[in-house]
Amino acid sequence: MLQKLRAFFWPIQKVELKKVIPMFLLFFFFVFNYTILKDISEPLIVTARGSGAESIAFLKLWGTLPLALLFMFIYSKLSTRISKKALFYSIITFFISFYLLFGFVLYPLKDVLHPHAFADKLEAFLPRGLSGGVAVIRNWTFSLFYALSELWGTVGVSFLFWGFSNDTTKISESKRFYSLFGIGAALAMMVAGPTNIYFSNLGKLALVDSWGVTIKYLMTTLFISGLSIIGVYYWINRYVLTDKRFKVAEKKSTTKEAKQKLSIKEALKFILKSRYLLLIAGIVMGYSIS
Known about the structure:
By secondary structure, the chain is an all-alpha fold. Helices cover about 80% and strands about 0% of the residues. It folds into two domains: about 15-250; about 255-290, no CATH class. It has 13 helices and no strands. Helix 4 (about 85-105) runs antiparallel to helix 8. It is globular and about 65 Å long.
């Protein structure tokens, strides 16, 4: 009876903690960054000069979506040239470096970098309904930050973490492990909220540009969290996946399967021909834009 209760409430064996704990931490850091970015990016756009909530729709359509497509193209090219590990490190390094650059360079120089005079002329010329689009151009560094923050959820959480998890977790393990990873995500959101509040209050103590000070604190936190992701990922590859108990059998691709590997252009054509895949793509795009 006790054995069944333990299996229900804690379905992890002691030997499996070596794998479960680092994967738990990896998901925690991914979602921690995502939550902080989500909390910062939207207020940054809505409260920017000449901007408002209407800018979000323009950004999702003309910022996040094109960047997601560009990422897909770059990733498909790089995946044939470098290893999965190198690609993982490169993507994480790019994101956290940009966030640090934004906090310490782009945001402090916003008044110099943002073309307010040009945007004012554009706003006077264009219809009022396009004011959200003009705001995207006016506050282009904020727009870029917003788009790359949104992309962290798609690329970091959905693509990198779950892709790595699916590659390294056996089917028999997934039924028991994935629910615990979800707890890691919930815990990350619980920690990210107070972290945002703490640094916001700390920023208020600054005599000049309190929001800028808060941004610096939060971007530094994101950078450290990103380094933690790299560290945990390295540890898993170095000490967990080399353990025979946790090795996942690699799928041997045949010559026929290799020939069937589609390019981006061919993949898009295949999606357009399939009603089922087209509807799924519509759902994903609708979620991203809404």
